[in-house]
Design goal:
heterodimer; A: alpha+beta; 2 domains; 11 helices; about 10% strand; B: about 160 residues; alpha+beta; 5-stranded mixed sheet; 5-stranded antiparallel sheet
Amino acid sequence: MGIRARRHNLSPLLARAKALLLMMSVILIVANLYFLSSTRQLAESYSARQNQATWFLFQLTKEFSELTAITPFAASNKNHHDKTLLKYELTWSRFDLLLNSREADTFINLPGARTFFSTLFVNFQALESQFANINDPIQAKLLSQQLSNLYLGMIQYINTNFRIQSPLYRDQMMQAQMLHQSQIALLLLLSLCASLAGYIIHLEAKHHRQLSLTDSLTKVNNRLALFNDLERFVDHDKEFTLYLLDLNGFKQINDKYGHQAGDKALKEIARRLLGLKLPCYRIGGDEFALIELDSMHRKPIWQEIEACFDHRVEITDNNRALLSTSIGVASYPKDTNQINQLISIADKNMYRMKFKREEPQRKNA
Amino acid sequence: MGRLLSVILIFISCNTIGSELIIKMQNREPIVLSHNDVLSHFEPTTFQTQLPWVDGKKSFTGFKATSLVDFLGVNDAFSLSFIALNDYAATSRIEDVIQYEPIVAYQMDGHHMKVRNKGPYWLIFNLDKYPEIDNAIFHSQMVWQIDEILIHRRSDGN
């Protein structure tokens, strides 16, 4: 009884757990998809950044190195002078592109890049006024030295931060690794959720099966369970005895005190029969069945069954009634090896007893 | 001979730092257009557009690339190559040039463009008018700091 009651309480809990698990599964699937796509984006951004960084840095480096190389010769002739000015303009435009064009966004927004190149550009612009004096070889050489310092600083920065083992690259690798680990964790969680959901569905199926085999009023097994068990015992070739019980005096309780009183009586009888520790079934209105496996080696339980009816049954707060039972017995395979016949033999025996019992009662009435 | 030519070319390019534009075709002498030539020979066209390399909408003034071909009397051009001061070059198909009418711009928001502002000449497609060409293929064709234009003709191959 205790187990059955708990199982009934378990059901809403299971339903809630199932809904929760389904929701979590959906969330986990979405999270997995998100992580998958962000991994892909990260991979794409690697190559995009690589390309842009390579292209813009290449352009800037090219112009800057040419400017640095030609400046000391600016005073030598007009061509070199003009070319120096042109290279300054070109280098200027490469800084501008690197810092301000949308195409360079992903590169310049790498940690530290904008600060470094902005500062470098400011220092570069600060040299502009000195280009007025490059007709003087000494001034040109001085300017070249300053440009060279800036240029070498830039090369140093690039060498430090765009090596394969650079801190930037390491950060990105760690990010990728974390994404990968999160994905594995999420997948594990997902499979856990799935197996829990599967387990709950299994429990539910078991619960429903139990419900279908249980008599809802008395909580003992029902008629379907009896036939299932009989078939099972026959299939396994077990020897057993079937007892069919028909209550005497039950209809009178129903008629006199109402169905609620009748139900109460049935519940009490079922409780007493369960005390016999035998498989017990309610197979009709006031009909019960018990199965005794011969392997149990018990003394005949006829008396034990009748003892269940020795005491009065409480049917309302103030009324108690005395019930009795007629018992029909049939043994497998001694009496027959057919289930239907077995029941029919037990039935006949039971009616024979009932008839015998009712005779004297009528006389008394 | 090649070396001599390159020396001459360097000489020319050094002298054309201002804003001279060199037009080249196979089997023809290069044509050097001063900025005044450009202003007097070609009808100016102005439009506004956004570009990936500048903030917000800018107004650009220049001459239509098609008018250059017309001006030279070339009727069998199949592509135009625009070569920049840093030797970057990109080629546009004549069909695209006719359909989308890019301009060789020399003014941005009414001001002449210095080299540092991607001048003296910048090939601009009107991306606002033709959003379908707002992509990497056409972005890469918008050569800035142009100092030379090559006209390829169908007869070149013969």
